Structure formats: C-alpha cells, structure tokens
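Is this the right way to post structure tokens for a design question? Let me know if I should format differently. Anyway, here goes:
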C-alpha cells in the first residue's frame, strides 16, 4: 500500500460535526462518491467553487495515499471545485443517506467500483503544455496477474 501523506482541507465551521460523523464512511466508499458526482459536467468555463467561509472555517488534517489524492484532485479539477468543497459535498451526501446500495440510486452508482487516475503528457515545456488526465471506473479490481516467486533454500 502506498504511504499516506499529510495534507489539509478547509471546511465551513458548521461541517465539523459532519466531518467527525461521516469522514470515515466517505473515505471507505470514495470510489462510490466519485462515481456518483460524475453527474456534474466538467467545465473550464466557470470560476472555481469553494466552501463558503461566512460562518468560519476549520482546517482538518488528513492523510491520503497518492491514489486517493490524485482521484480527488482529478474530479475537483474537472468540476472546477476545490478539493475541500468536494469533500464537503461528499460529507453532505453521506448525511443525506446517499450510500452504496441506497434505494433510488442509478444502477451504475450502486456498485463499489475500483477507480484509477492517470495522465498522459503529449507536450510539456516552456512553449506550453498538452496533457490528458483520465479517471477510469470498472466493476472490480483488475485481476492480480503476478505470481509469487518461489523461494529456494
């Protein structure tokens, strides 16, 4: 497993209880929430959405492996949301009972998909950059094709 790295998110002060109550559930079902939020259309034609700080902001220290970090940043970037806002939306969904297997969900959202985020760079230099970032879903983790090496004594 990838080493977890420390970062932080900023949440509206009223969301502190939501975070304490639902953060573990959201992280345990992250692929579900990412897939559920794919309904929002990606756009470069709007300003980034952030959490409203009018009632105060709390800073929450979080520890994510790089796959989690990349998945969150990929979707947030595509939607023009801050990662903190994305996490807050997921916490509110959990509070509203939007969980894997919940009734009324699109059948595509019911499963617990495995997710994979990557990017392909076509050009990266002083003149500019061109890259494609992609986020793939499948119904299960890919099969392990490696076999353990035999140990000789």
């Amino acid at each position: 497993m990838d080493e977890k790295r420390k970062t932080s998110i900023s949440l509206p002060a009223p969301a502190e209880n939501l975070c304490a109550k639902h953060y573990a559930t959201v992280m345990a079902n992250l692929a579900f929430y990412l897939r559920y939020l794919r309904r929002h259309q990606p756009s470069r034609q709007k300003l980034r959405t952030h959490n409203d700080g009018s009632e105060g902001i709390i800073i929450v220290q979080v520890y994510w492996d790089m796959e989690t970090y990349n998945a969150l940043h990929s979707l947030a970037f595509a939607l023009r949301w801050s990662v903190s806002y994305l996490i807050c939306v997921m916490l509110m969904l959990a509070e509203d009972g939007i969980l894997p297997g919940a009734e009324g969900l699109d059948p595509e959202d019911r499963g617990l998909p495995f997710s994979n985020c990557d990017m392909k760079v076509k050009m990266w230099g002083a003149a500019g950059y061109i890259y494609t970032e992609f986020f793939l879903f499948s119904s299960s983790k890919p099969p392990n094709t490696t076999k353990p090496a035999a140990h000789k004594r």
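Format looks fine. Someone answered above. Worth noting: Confidence is low (pLDDT under 50) at residues 142-153. Residues 5-138 form one domain.
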